[in-house]
Amino acid sequence: MWYPMKWMLKVDRKQARLLSWVKVPKLLLHRLLPNVRYSIWIDGKLQLVMDPYQVLERFLWQQNASFAISRHYRRFDVFEEAEANKAAGKYGNSSIDYHIEFYKKEGLSPYSKAKLPITSDVPDGCVIIREYIPITNLFSCLWFNEVDRFTARDQLSFSTAYHRDLLDQMPPLVAPAILHPPSLRLDSSSGRSSCKNSRRGRDRRSGSRQRRKAAVGIREKQTLL
């Protein structure tokens, strides 16, 4: 005789390895399903109540985008998010401090308008909409590497994975060539430009030809008279 039992799974949030494995289907779905084209990740606290194609139409196809993620409703700065995580006890304080200090040494700075078009350094991560193309696959792998390397709080690694790793992988922008007009050469004796105005020369030559034609016409009239 058996009795139904209710199991409760408790995850130690201080174990980064356990939480990092939860990020595999969230960030590395293209490694599990190589033929996937689009995906919509939704956390368990939310529920999808509309057609998924409408979600793709609204956030990807109409925007001509390949990646969309929900922005944090309150915080935009990684440093503020780290302090909030420590205050809420979502991860070990020492691990978060080491995580942020390492990023600071590598150039992590508070969020500012200089980081546009990124409108926030702190995503919520509860909704991720992706088209699986090489650039989004690369970013997902870079993001997962940071999560696996440090804390499993993926909000703290998003901006570094984008600004430091992804932009370094992209080819540099080539500045357009600026063609300057040729400089004028000045005559050392008179101080005037040595460049001749070809149009004025053509005008003078055409005027002299017209005067010669007029003179020939007058002589012809005189001979006829």
Automatic annotation (TrEMBL):
Compositionally biased region (Basic residues): 197-214
UniProt region (Disordered), positions on chain: 184-225
Top-level taxon: Eukaryota
Coiled coil stretches, renumbered: none
InterPro entries in alphabetical order: TOD1_MUCI70, TOD1_MUCI70_glycTrfase_dom
Residue ranges occupied by any TOD1/MUCI70 glycosyltransferase-like domain in the UniProt entry: 23-164
Record field: compositional bias (Low complexity): 184-196
Protein name: TOD1/MUCI70 glycosyltransferase-like domain-containing protein
Source organism per UniProt: Populus alba x Populus x berolinensis
